[in-house]
Amino acid sequence: MLSDVAKFDKIIPAILLISLLLINICLPLLMELLHIASVYYYISIETMKVRDIIKAVDGRVICGNDLDKDLTTGCSSDLMSDILTLEPVNAVLITGLANVQAVRTADMAGISHILFVRDKPISKEMIALAEESGITLLETGLSMFVVCGKLAAEGLQGPY
User: Fold this and answer.
1) Which among 55, 45, 14 is positioned nearest to 150, based on CA atoms?
2) Domain that holds residue 20
3) pLDDT in tens, 76-125
4) Domain annotation covers residue 160
């Protein structure tokens, strides 16, 4: 009886090892055949150039010249505490809050571009802080709702 158990103890690890090898070899081949991997990557890496964002919202550049950067996320809020709870990567902050706090928040959150909506006046202090922080400032006369809708229709994703 012990010899049967000993054989069984050797067979189980061998079966597990063979199963893992088959999964690691066959699953990527199956995904490639079904084009699952390429579809996933296409969906997850949708980007939009800053110049295309400006065109889509009839925007204008206030300061900065980083117009060829690919952005992947749009974050919209007038509550800067909401922005600080996100982990934006290659994001544009869309806001109607036109004061230095928006620029400071973008800098703290690692956001490289701010799009101010509703033609809010941008102060010289905001421009100086943005230039010092390497943040590009943009503006548009459109509402935040319309801007978000247009950018979503163009393929820009939200943070969630």
Assistant:
1) 55
2) 2-44
3) 999 998 898 888 888 999 999 999 999 999 999 999 999 999 999 999 99
4) no
Number of domains in the chain: 2
Q: Counting Cβ atoms within 10 Å, is residue 65 exposed (0-12), middle (13-18) or buried (19+)?
A: exposed
Kindly state whether residues 57 and 15 are assigned to the same domain: no
Mean pLDDT, rounded, for 58-81: 93
Question: How high does pLDDT run on average in the chain?
Answer: 83
144: left (phi > 0), else alpha (psi -120 to 50), else beta? Answer: alpha
Same domain for 145 and 94:
yes
